[in-house]
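Entry 14. Ran structure prediction on the chain below.
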Amino acid sequence: MSWRLGIIGGSGLYAIDGLEDARWISVDSPWGPPSDAVLAGRIGAVELRFLPRHGRGHRIPPHQLNVRANIDALKRLGCTDVLAISAVGSLNGAMAPGDFVAVDQFIDRTHGRPSTFFETGLVGHVPMADPTCPRLSALAADAVAAAGGRVHRGGTYLAMQGPAFSSRAESRLHRAWGCDLVGMTAMPEAKLAREAELPYALLAMVTDFDCWHDGADVDVGTIMAVMQGNAALARASIKALCAALPARRSASPIDTVLDQAIMTAADVQDPALLARNQAILARWLTKGRTG
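Output, structure tokens:
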């Protein structure tokens, strides 16, 4: 199988340099409009599909992202894997502004965000013990190092609701829980990618120390200044990743995770929900649609 890498660009990353055969593609999703059109192209032999998470110009706040539509759009475009890139605050003194972290765990403190493709008429429970893809995460971390960046391999990301930053008490609480990073967008993104059978990795770009550190406040101006350098390194890392990907993509266990996840018996599955999830369930439907 060939790689077709979906890239979800976070704050400060709205395009990819050096993309060949580049064109913007509008995708209709039954879950509503995605954040933006998808920039399609390739770097060398690797096909890329880039979606700016907040829309070009940063129009959409984190708590109003249509994450189901975003993941559905990447699935419809044939993506095999998804690399997300997000700006974060650090809760760990060893993870400094300018560093990258290949996240391997999440704590979800968001609320009111649609977080699953499964509803009444089709029940599924995907495993999330290890929510990121170890293969893609390792390749992404290697790419940051190859591009000259400092990268940490592993870290726990606390997803908060936003859009306001943490209070000082919240920041200290999150540190006490053992979290390394705080951000607003990785959940339910990682959960939905798993339901869509898309191996998911997250490169977190550290922009600040959150407000636990030396009593400092977090402000957008400081974050934007660090983000400019981080975004340039992120673009270089994407190029390095494309150059390092194996010529052939071997299968991942995540590719078939729905085979052990869907519980609803075939004779009571909701046809309308099956149709709405046609892209997400395409492989499973072809296999035989058994709960």
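The chain is about 30% helix and 20% strand. Will compare against last week's run tomorrow.
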